[in-house]
User: Fold these one by one.
Assistant:
Number 1:
Amino acid sequence: MASSLDDASPPSIDAVTENNLQPFFVLQKGSLRKSERKSSGTGKTRRRIDLSPALPKNSENPEDEKEDENMNLRMEAFEFVWSKIKSTIKDVLRDINTSVFSEIQSWVHQTFDTIRSLGTPDFLEATQSFPVITDANSRKLFTGLVLTKNMEFVDDLMTFDALGKHLKSQGCHVANLSSLDFIAKNGIGGCLRSLLRQFLKSTLDPADISILASWYGEENYKNPVVVIVDDIERCCGSVLSDFILMLSEWVVKIPVILIMGVATTLDTQRNILPSNALQRLCPFEFTLGTPAERMDAVVEAVLVKPCSGFSIGHKVAVFMRNYFVSQDGTLTSFIRALKVLEIGRYGLSPEVMWKHVFNLPSCQRVKMTKQTNESLAHAFSELKRLQNQWRAVVLCLYVTGKGEKVRLLDLFCEAIDPESYNKREFATCTKLEKDSILSPSSRQRPSLAKGRVIFEAIHLVRDLSTGQLGKLLKIWKNLTVGIPEINDKVKELQSLLKIEDGKSSKKDLIITPKRHASRIQLDNEKDSKSLSDKAANLLECMVRDYMQPIECIPFHEIFCFKNVDKLQLALIGDPRRRIQVDLLEFQKLLHCSCCISGSNALLPSMHDTSIMYKLAQEHGDLINLHDWYQSFKSVVLRPSSSKRKSRQSPLPKKRKDINETENQSEASTQARFCRAVTELQITGLLRMPTKRRPDFAQRVAFGL
């Protein structure tokens, strides 16, 4: 699955994080040259690893050079596109958290002023190694409880790291503590060492809070001190309690403001902390956006809007949505899927793509008569135009149902479904014309065969009031700029809405008897309902005529990633199958000259575990250990000339040496057999014997 990493430098700590994938998940190394596969001879059985230096560049196969060049081009394209996507995601998440971060920042500075109003110790008091004795009110620890709404732990790390950087940029002294700093093994000393390491840039032992007080009193007393704990539910309650009590005692010398992340509910602190620690807290509540809201923002910026120039197919989108849900709504997992998807996107060289561009399945369906550069350019232009229309309709549907918890990820999966698009039929197929929304008969049209989310969004329009409808049409107008086919219809409906508003205001100015007031109100409601129906009909026509999925457009294979199996293998993997393949096709990994690729013959030079697994293929569910061992022994101990019977009987001393050698060889073979069986058990391909059947092992995996 991956190219060889023998020559690569050791990875850094950042290289093994969940969100920093290396591009060897999907990309595969080119096949070996034929000269490297040739065996050096069949008579020699000792394994020989080819350590010869690489051939000069001028003697390489031109096809291999071309493949290397194409690989470099694909990697450059990947790096460029992924950097753009990564930057877009970073900006989106920053914009989502801006309002909450600004609110927390304002609260921190107000709290700092409140603490300073209680009194500021002089330099002598501030540098003493004991806290200032004050009343109970002066020992309150201002605490911000940030509700993450059950965000995954990985997402919490990113969010609170960004919060720390934001507060530092505003002049605060910030330290980020994780749940690993609050474990019972290290006690409160682990928290203090982490604080000193971040504030003083050094680790002192023993750790003492008075050192931090001296540091703050000497030259850092003008700015607040903020301590961020990302998830209190993962912390040891007793250590966190002692930490809170200690900070509250020193709050006059060190104006500490505590910010703690809460994943589930705000009542969690009462279940973790004892009453004496809770009494020291002065809590304030802040709420971050839900994972679904953050996901919608990422989907809109990366997949719906033209961010990177590529799209994904329906099956891939459904898999990514299910993967997001199965990972407990982890935004990091979705971003990880995007990166793996991007790695796998650039699989064809430009030459191969250009050579077969008119033979693509989507192109064959439309039967293009002219296969020229001009026709191809026109097709690409048409694809771009249709995608802009699709994008505008999807966003119109999203803003319509956003207030009613319509999720963009679900809407996106329905909007790119080619089968659903092909089933969209009306009983009366009338084209969207200028006066279609003005016709009262349009309200009797049968409903469009559509998905649940799309149907819900259209249904919501019919229940809008005149004021809500006016705001929605204004948003539609902005979203459809550049698409006159839709934008003109939205403007027409807006003008009709203004006329109805003018009529209603004139009726309100006329003084009428009370018996006519109810009739006028009823007429106004009917007019409003008529306009809502017309807006719903317009949205329905937009879905029918302008929301064409990319998989229904010619040449979409060039820009659309549809290989869901490749993505699934890269994200979830199939380790058991990979192990079986490697054991059966070990020549591709070892590159030894003694083993002939494609041959089923078992040789003593093969890896012991590979020999054992190949022998296991001859058995059923159960493997007789004695027979298995004898087969293994016959392979690894092939008779040689030294073991043939000589014509003369050996001397007694030589016979003794031969017996000892044979005993040592037997013990060594048994040890190799046991080690290979253990390796097969560890890899999950074999179940060891039980007390009921001690002579049989059981195979677990069958087939590939």
Number 2:
Amino acid sequence: MEETDREAVATAVQRVAGMLQRPDQLDKVEQYRRREARKKASVEARLKAAIQSQLDGVRTGLSQLHNALNDVKDIQQSLIDVNKDWRQSINAIENLKDVKDAVVQHSQLAAAVENLKNIFSVPEIVRETQDLIERGELLKAHKKLMDLECSRDNLMYEQYRMDSKNTHDMNLIHTYFGDMQKLSEELAKQLWMVVQRSLVTVRRDPTLLVSVVRIIEREEKIDRRMLDRKKQTGFIPPGRPKKWKENMFNILERTVSTRIEGTQADTRESDKMWLVRHLEIIRKYVLDDLLVAKTLLDQCFPPHYDIFKRLLSMYHQALSTRMQELAAEDLEANEIVSLLSWVLNTYKSTEMMGNSELSPEVDANSLSLLLSQNVVDQLLSKYMSTLTSNIIGWLRKALETDKKDWVKETEPEADQDGYYQTTLPAIVFQMFEQNLQVAAQISEDLKTKVLLLCLQQMNSFLTRYKDEAQFYKEEHLKNRQYPQCYVQYMIAVINNCQTFKESIISLKRKYLKVEMEETLSSSHASMDAILDIIAKEGCSSLLDEVFMDLEPHLNELMTKKWLLGSNAVGTICVTVEDYFNDFAKIKKPYKKTMTMEAHRRVVVEYIRAIMLKRISFKNAEERKEGAEKMIKEAEQFRFLFKKLASGSGEDTEGLCDIIEAIAEVIKLTDPSLLYLEVSTLVSKYPDIRDDHIAALLTVRGDASRDMKQTIIETLDQGPSQPSPNYVPIFKEITVPTLTVPKLLK
């Protein structure tokens, strides 16, 4: 207490010191004193109120405890009195046993009397009930059946209460009502027949279906009542619970399964489109059934049956089972596509579960897949494997068919622009298109995989195509008279290459996503390269054909006959132009290549004729005459190939300039300027070799051995650098005579 007083004094001193820190605050001492006095009075009042409240609570609690004690004493006395009375009444209870037995017997007799009328009239009621069932009056029949069952059940229950171990009397009652069980089974058969045909019945006679549902509901209530009594007494009548509601749903489930399975009208042997027909019938039946269930059937059942959702679940499960059975069969590629397209797309589309008339009760997006992802993957894998084999077979067959056309005696067909072609590209890409369109029905991913497969097989196919075109050329060279339309069909093969290129680009643009193009760039480049090789070899084989016909005329060049007035070049130009009338049916990219190659080969053969040294001019007059003839013939070639290349933008000047440059060397009259003229020729065409110069000087006929050696040695000392745009031509020309060292000896 003293400690508390000291703390209070110390606190007060601190507060006073805080109030009186300045001299002017002394004037407010009285004001401070009154304020502190008010605070003190307030605290004391609150403290007194709190203490008073606590005291009132304690007083109330003590009063309640006192009352509780008195109540406990009263209860204790009452229990003592009850115990005393109970002990005194034990003997009286034993004396009432006979009365109890009499009450039980009276209850049984009362039940017997109550059911006496039904007991004696059981055979008659059974006959009436049977007649009602046969006439289809199911509600009346069920009412009589319920009366019979009620009489039997009451009798058996009273017998059970009296003596539960007396099976003899129980069996006697059960036997007497034995026909009733047959009636129940017969009535159930009628109910299940109606349930099986419920989707038909609800349209023709909905009242009958409602009656069936009412009967089932009655039985469900009786089942529940009997089960409740069993919990209380242990007794349940024979045949209970009937579980007719559960049976009804089982019957519906089997009916749905049978309806789905029964839609297969054909087999693969009788109809190649059996699966498509089967799936279409399923789609139509299921949609019709669900629409009927939603609009009509739902009104015939109590809401708690949730009949539409139950039927929807049954159809979904039956469909899933059926789809799994179909997936397990040995399906062909087109059948796999039909199945997957139906499962993944049609099922949830507006044509079926997504139909607007089924919403909002049916949410197609919430339905699970009819086939597991594992089964789908297996089918896709099988489809890709089968498709690979099919494509390989189709491509091989298409090529074999095309090869048969190559040996026909009639020209190939031409497209709308007049270019020769065969049906091979159209057949191949039509096949690709069909498979891609089918794959697109299933998924984007499968479409991409099929496209990759098609392009991969196309790559292999083009290699075989190249080999067959080469073999076609080799067979023709054995007998140039056969096939009769070799040139035309080789042109068609060349044109097919361009068509293949365009078709590949079109196919990728139509079916390949932009982000996937990078992955196919190498494959595309490979196919383009093979097609270019096929076209190039085809063009080369056609030019070989031309130059085999030109060979006699090429052999006349730079000979005495030529100098005396041979028209070999004129014949060459006419022959080339005649061939190019057919070559006009080659498509532009390859036609341009063809023209350029023909131009180059004509010039090469002309220069080769010079280098063969078939003629050696004897004097300046012959050299002048020969050179002027060469210049004239170069102009003929220039005119010819300019005409053939019209519209292609090809430079036709440079190659013929070589002939003219050589002619200038031959035409030169001053031998002292020969070195200068030859050096000019070498500077323009740096791939010209020493043997070419030696052969050229030999053709001039006026260059001595020393002059030849001097010119060649001098030119060797200062090799020139070729221009970047120069395409070597002399490297293809060999001089099949003595080598230069032997020539100079």
